[in-house]
Amino acid sequence: MARRPRLPRDAGMSTAEYAVGTVAAAGLAAVLYQVVTSDTVSSALRGLVERALDAPL
Question: What pLDDT does residue 56 have?
Answer without folding.
Answer: 82
